[in-house]
C-alpha cells in the first residue's frame, strides 16, 4: 500500500495536528553495545545508521497512518533530533522544514514474523553450511550491489539458483528487510564469512523495534507494531542526498500503539 496524502493549506494542516510527540532517546540498546558498535564499523554503517524514539499521548487509530506520519514529520521533536545525510560528501544536518509538511509518501511494510526460524531455509537450500559458514561465489556487482557469496545472491540476484526460497511476500517483511540491510552494509563493508553476526544483530534490533505479545485466544505470538517506509516528505529538505533509490537509503517509522511510542530508523548510502 502506498499513499500520498495532502493538506490544502497551512491553516488546515495546523488544525489537523492531532498527534503530538515528546523526545525519548536517540539510542537503540541493541545497537549501542561495544560488540555491535564494532560490527557496524566493520560493515561501514556506524556513522550512517541513525535512530530516534518519541512518545505520543493520543490513542492511535490504524486508519490514521497518513495523519500520524504528517504530524510526526511536522514535529519539532523529530526535526531537531533526527539528522539526515544532506550531501554525498558526508555532511549531516537536522531535517529542515521549508514549509509545513503537506504530504508524506510512504509504503506500509508487513511485519508479522516472530521467529528467526524464518531464515532456516538458508541452511536447507545450501546457502549456509551447518556451521553457519556462508558459501562463496564468483564476485560480481549488480545494480551497484556487490555480490560476493551465495547469501548476497539469494538476497539480490533474481535469476540465482536459490532466489525463490523467499517469496515476494517474504521479501516485503520487515524482518527480511532488516536482515538484508545488515548483510549488504555500507560502501566499505568488510563482509562476514559466518552468518552468526548477521543473525544476532538482526534478532536483537528487531526485538528492540517491534512489540510482540501473546494473543489470549490462540496463545500465539502476534506483532503489535505498524511499520512504514517513508520515501519523501513534501515541505522538508530531502531525506536522502540522491533522488535515485538505493536499497541502503531507508527511513522506517515503527508505531507501537500499546506502548504509545514511535521509532524512526534511518540510514543513508554514502557513495565514493
What does this structure look like?
The chain has helices at 10-15, 29-32, 34-42, 65-72, 76-79, 121-124, 150-156, 168-172, 174-184, 196-209, and strands spanning 2-4, 21-25, 50-56, 83-85, 92-94, 103-109, 136-142, 145-149, 212-214, 221-223, 226-234, 250-256, 261-267. The protein has 10 helices and 13 strands. The longest helix has 14 residues, at 196-209. The chain is an alpha+beta fold.
What are the key terms here?
26% helix; 272 residues
> Which of globular, elongated, flat, extended, rod-shaped describes the shape?
globular
| Cα-based radius of gyration, to the nearest Å | 19 Å
Q: In angstroms, what separates the terminal alpha carbons?
A: 34 Å
Tell me the structural class. Answer: alpha+beta
Poorly predicted regions: 1-17
In order across it, which strands form the biggest sheet?
A: 1-6-11-12-13-3-2
Nearest-integer average pLDDT: 89
How many H/I helices?
A: 10
User: Which series of helices and strands comes N to C?
Assistant: EHEHHEHHEEEHEEHHHHEEEEE
Assembly of the depicted chains: single chain
What fraction of the residues are assigned to beta strands by DSSP?
25-35%
Helical content stands at: 25-40%
Main beta-sheet annotation? 7 strands, antiparallel
Total strand segments: 13
Amino acid at each position: 500500500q502506498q499513499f500520498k496524502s495532502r493538506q490544502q493549506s497551512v491553516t488546515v494542516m495546523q488544525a489537523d495536528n492531532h498527534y503530538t510527540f515528546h523526545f525519548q532517546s536517540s539510542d537503540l540498546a541493541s545497537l549501542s553495545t561495544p560488540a555491535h558498535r564494532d560490527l557496524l564499523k566493520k560493515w561501514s554503517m556506524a556513522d550512517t545508521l541513525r535512530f530516534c524514539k518519541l512518545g505520543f499521548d493520543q490513542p492511535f487509530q490504524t486508519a490514521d497512518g497518513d495523519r500520524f506520519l504528517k504530524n510526526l514529520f511536522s514535529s519539532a521533536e523529530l526535526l531537531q533530533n533526527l539528522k539526515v545525510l544532506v550531501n554525498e560528501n558526508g555532511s549531516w544536518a537536522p531535517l529542515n522544514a521549508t514549509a509545513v509538511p503537506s504530504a508524506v509518501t510512504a509504503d506500509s511494510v508487513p511485519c508479522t514474523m516472530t521467529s528467526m526460524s524464518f531464515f532456516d531455509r538458508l541452511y536447507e537450500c545450501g546457502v549456509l553450511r551447518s556451521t553457519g559458514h556462508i558459501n562463496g561465489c564468483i564476485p560480481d556487482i549488480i545494480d551497484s550491489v556487490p555480490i560476493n557469496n551465495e547469501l548476497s545472491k539469494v538476497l539480490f540476484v533474481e535469476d540465482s539458483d536459490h532466489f525463490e526460497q523467499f517469496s515476494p511476500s517474504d521479501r516485503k517483511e520487515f524482518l527480511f528487510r532488516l536482515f538484508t540491510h545488515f548483510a549488504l552494509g555500507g560502501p566499505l563493508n568488510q563482509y562476514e564469512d559466518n552468518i552468526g553476526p548477521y543473525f544476532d544483530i538482526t534478532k536483537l534490533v528487531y526485538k528492540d523495534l517491534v512489540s510482540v505479545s501473546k494473543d489470549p485466544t490462540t496463545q500465539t505470538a502476534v506483532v503489535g507494531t505498524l511499520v512504514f517506509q517513508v520515501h519523501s516528505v513534501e515541505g522538508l529538505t530531502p531525506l536522502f542526498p540522491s533522488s535515485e533509490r538505493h536499497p541502503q537509503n531507508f527511513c522506517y517509522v515503527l508505531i507501537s500503539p500499546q506502548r504509545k511510542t514511535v521509532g524512526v530508523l534511518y540510514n543513508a548510502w554514502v557513495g565514493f
